[in-house]
């Protein structure tokens, strides 16, 4: 598991991979629009200021066409990720009452 800075570098690398696959620029703004965030949020993520929640990280991986293992540096399940980042800054959490399960 990476520290937030290394995770941010991997997110940036994933964006670059998406750009190369499509032969079109895939900017922070493009990624932000695809995942429902702001370009400032993506910039902060790539600068290693926080860890995103699991669902957002999975959406980033899917949007960029990479595996979660590429972003995380290893195979990891949601519970392991949440345990690994415990005590770190997470961008947001969704209260249980707001989940539609």
> Which spans of ≥5 residues are poorly predicted at pLDDT below 50?
none
Number of helices: 6
Q: What string gives the helices and strands in order?
A: HHHHHH
Question: Main β-sheet: number of strands, strand sense, barrel status?
Answer: none
| Share in helix | 55-70%
Instruction: Report the count of strand segments.
Output: 0
Strand proportion: under 5%
Rounded to the nearest angstrom, the radius of gyration is 13 Å
Arithmetic mean of pLDDT: 86
In whole angstroms, the N-to-C terminal distance is 29 Å
- General form: globular
Judged by helices, strands and strand pairing, the structural class is mainly alpha
Characterization of this structure:
With 101 residues, this protein is an all-alpha fold. The chain is built from six helices and no strands. The N and C termini lie far apart (29 Å).
Which helices and strands appear, and what pairs or packs with what?
Layout (H helix, E strand, L loop, with lengths): L3 H19 L5 H8 L3 H8 L7 H11 L3 H5 L5 H8 L16
Brief rundown of the structure:
By secondary structure, this protein is mainly α.
Characteristic key phrases:
mainly alpha
């Amino acid at each position: 598991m990476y520290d937030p800075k290394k995770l941010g570098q991997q997110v940036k690398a994933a964006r670059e991979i998406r750009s190369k696959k499509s032969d079109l620029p895939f900017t922070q703004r493009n990624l932000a629009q695809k995942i429902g965030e702001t370009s400032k949020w993506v910039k902060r993520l790539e600068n290693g200021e926080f860890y995103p929640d699991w669902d957002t990280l999975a959406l980033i991986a899917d949007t960029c066409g990479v595996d979660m293992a590429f972003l995380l540096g290893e195979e990891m399940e949601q519970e392991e990720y949440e345990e690994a980042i415990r005590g770190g800054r997470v961008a947001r959490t969704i209260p249980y009452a707001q989940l539609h399960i």
